[in-house]
Specification:
With 88 residues, the protein is mostly helical. It has 2 domains: 49 residues, no CATH class; 38 residues. The chain has 4 helices and no strands. Helix 1 packs across helix 2. The longest helix is centred in the C-terminal third of the chain and has 36 residues. The radius of gyration is 23 Å and the shape is elongated.
Length: 88
């Protein structure tokens, strides 16, 4: 949101108050066109410091880390399962 306000100030010559109001109106308009489930995504994109591409990369890294952690966890469980079967 800060980036949007800064751009409105720079490109449209708006004051801080005017740019903030315009940004708020814009965000409300965008949200009114989207399902409620996507409102959080809009807020997330606008509050992120960086580009949308950077945000996507961060999400992929986060997801990748979660997948890796789950894979390690399941590898241990599978190994335990087969080790127990051998001992039976």
């Amino acid at each position: 949101m800060e980036e949007l306000i800064a751009r409105l100030r720079a490109q449209a010559g708006l004051t801080e108050a005017q740019a903030t109001e315009a940004a708020t109106i814009f965000v409300s308009f965008v949200k009114s066109k989207l399902p409620d489930a996507l409102h959080g995504t809009v807020d997330s994109v606008l509050s992120y410091k960086g580009t949308v591409t950077d945000q996507a990369k961060d999400k992929v890294r986060q997801f990748s880390g979660e997948v890796e952690e789950t894979a390690r966890e399941w590898t241990g469980k599978v190994a335990d399962f087969f080790n127990k079967k051998k001992g039976s």
